[in-house]
Structure formats: C-alpha cells, structure tokens
Amino acid sequence: MQIKTAEFLMSNTDLKKCPEANLNEYAFIGRSNVGKSSLINMLTNNSGLAKTSSTPGKTQHLNHFLINKSWYLVDLPGYGYAKMPKTLRAKFKSMIESYILKRTNLVALFVLIDCRHPAQKIDIEFLNWLGNNAVPFSLVFTKSDKLGVNSLSKSIDEYKLELLKYWETLPQIFVSSSVKVIGKEEILDYISELNKIIDAG
Ligand code: GDP
Known about the structure:
Layout: E1 6-12, E2 24-30, H1 36-43, E3 62-67, E4 71-75, H2 86-102, E5 106-114, H3 121-132, E6 137-142, H4 149-163, E7 172-175, H5 184-200
Parallel strand pairs: 2-4, 2-5, 5-6, 6-7
Antiparallel strand pairs: 1-3, 3-4
The chain binds guanosine-5'-diphosphate.
Guanosine-5'-diphosphate binds next to helix 1.
C-alpha cells in the first residue's frame, strides 16, 4: 500500500470524543521509548507526524490520524510507566482499556516490543489481557538494526518461547527498523489486506 495522505485529526483522552467509528482503525501501542513515533512516521512517510516521546501531553492521549482518507491510524499512550504516580497510571490504564475494548471499528492492535529486551512481565500481562478479551493483535519487534542477524533471531525466538508458555499459537509477527526502513511494506500490506477483507464483507 502506498501512503498518499496522512493527516493528524485529533488528540483526546475520551473515547466518546474520538472520530466517528465509520472507518477501519489500526492502533499502535508500546512502552515509552520503544520507537512508536519513529515507526508511525516511517509508515506514513512523514518525519513529523507522530511527535517524539518527549513532547509533553501527546504521549498521554489517543491520537487519531486519517490515512489515504480511508482508514484511521491511532497512536496510543504507552503502558506501564514506572515513574508515573499510581492514581495517574490507573487513569491511563482505564482509558487505554476502554478504548481497546469499546472502539467498535478497531481492526487490529500493533503491540511494539524493543527487539533487544527479553519478555517482560508487564508486556506478557498486557498480551494475555488482550487474548483474554479476544482483541486481535500483532507484535512488532522494533529497532532491529540494533542487533546482528543472529542475535535478532535469537532474541525473537526467546520471546516466542515465552509467549508459547501462555498461547497455543503465535500472533502475526513483524520486525521493524525506522533507521533502515525495515518492516514498512509488510505492515502496510497487512493493513491493506485486512482493509480489503473487511470492506469486501
Ligand atoms: P516512542 O517513545 O515509542 O515514540 O519512541 P521514539 O520513536 O521517540 O524513539 C525513541 C528513541 O529510539 C529515539 O531516540 C529514536 O531515535 C530511537 N529509535 C526509534 N526507532 C529506532 C530504530 O528503528 N532504530 C534505532 N537505532 N533507533 C530507533
């Protein structure tokens, strides 16, 4: 899929204020600094579309973008901020959870994982929560340029083994690098295929 237009639509904390749920929607989530903004910018050919993690405020909102005037891309706030006060953390958790569970046009969620890090409890808990709630998701292993070929495949294999402790089958897995432009075509083609299936049905 070629990205011809990518427009920022709105940023808010309230599911009810999101754009009308009349287009297919794909959301991206991951822990802070995982490379989410860079991935979104790579996918949309727009180096400034998703602000970097340091932009105050933006990281704590649901950010909607309209792509090719035909589908929504959503930049979700990161989960599991260790440094965040407990009450605020609970507020974000409930905002993210209610978005994921109630957004009727959400087709799939892309969960970003830094390929250098072993599976962490908070990620596994989040993935298991998605599974328990039958939320379709894919994994994206980011920053793949930071590892050599062997270390990368070892790291991903170890992650898969960890997942197989809880899951019978593995989700769709993508590997990306915003620096070397890896994974772009695969992710966009996957979205395009899902759009075709849904729009045909
Ligand atoms: P976010 O907090 O998840 O939105 O992460 P950012 O996209 O702001 O990236 C966090 C840091 O990781 C920045 O310093 C980026 O330059 C760096 N980064 C992001 N993606 C990649 C990547 O694919 N390769 C490398 N080497 N660095 C990356």
